[in-house]
Amino acid sequence: MKMKFLFTFLSLCFSTLVFSQEKFDIFFDFNKDIPNEKSALELQKWITENDHAQVLKIYGYCDSVDDNSYNKELALKRIQSTLKTLTENKIQISKSIELIPFGKDFKRSLIQEENRKVTLFYELLKLPVNNVGNEEIPTMGDITAKIERERATLASKFAKAKIGDIITIENIYFQLDTDKIIEKSRPILNELYEIMRKNPKLNIRINGHICCNVEATNSKLSSQRAIAVKAFLLEKQIHFYRLSYKGFGSTKPIFEIPEKNEKERLANRRVEIEIVAN
C-alpha cells in the first residue's frame, strides 16, 4: 500500500512538472535554417513578452524531402540558429538543455510547411522586484512640447551619424517603474520608425539606461525598456536583423548616483540609439 501511494505521489509530481512546461513553435521556409519572416516577427514578440522564460528543450524538425541524415543535419542547424537568437536576446537557457534534431523519425503532419519547424519547451520564472528608487515622470503638457522639439531635429542627427555614434533620444517616457511606453511618446517613436524605413541599410542597437538605482548592475528594467522600443519597431515591420538591444542599468550615468534633482535623474534615465551599420 505504501509503495502504491509513493508511486502515485511521484506520478502526480512528474505530471505537474511536465504540464508546467509551455511550448512555442518557430517555422522555416524550405531548406532554410533561418525562421521565415512571419515566424521571425512572432519569435521577437515572444522574446519581448517572455524575457523571464527559461528554455528547457529545443527540438528541430524537417519536411519529408531528402534523406534522414540530411534532414537531421538541417534540423540541427535550425536548432543552432534559434539558440543563437535566444542567447543574443538574453533569454535564459537551462544548463541541462535538451537539443534534439529529428530527421524523418517523428510523427509528421500531412502539411509539409508544418513540419519545417523548431519547438521550444520553456518555463516562466518569477520576475524579480525592480528597485529603481524615486523615478518621476514630467507632466503631459511638458512631454508634448519636448517631444515635438526633439522630433523635428531627430532625422538630421541620424543623417550626420557614423557607425559607432550614439544618439540620445530624451523623450521616450514609460509608466512609473515599468516598460510600458506612455502614449504621448508615440510621435518620437514614429519618427524613429520613419528614419529606419527611409534608410534600409541602417542597423541600430537600442541602449536602455535607468536612473536612481544604487545597484548599478541591476539591468532588468533598462533591458525591458530597450526591448519595448525594439518591439514597437518590429510591429512596424522593421526587420529584426536590423535591431538589437542592451540594458545598462545605471552603470553609465551622466550624473553621479544618487542624483541631486529631477533634472539629473531625467538625464540618466534615457534611451540611446547606437549606429551599427548605415
UniProtKB/TrEMBL annotation:
One GO CC term, this protein: membrane
Residue ranges of domain OmpA-like in the record: 161-278
Secretion signal, residue range per the UniProt entry: 1-20
Keywords for the protein's UniProt record, in alphabetical order: Membrane, Signal
SUPFAM superfamilies listed in its UniProt record: OmpA-like
Protein's recorded name: OmpA family protein
Organism for this UniProt entry: Flavobacterium amnicola
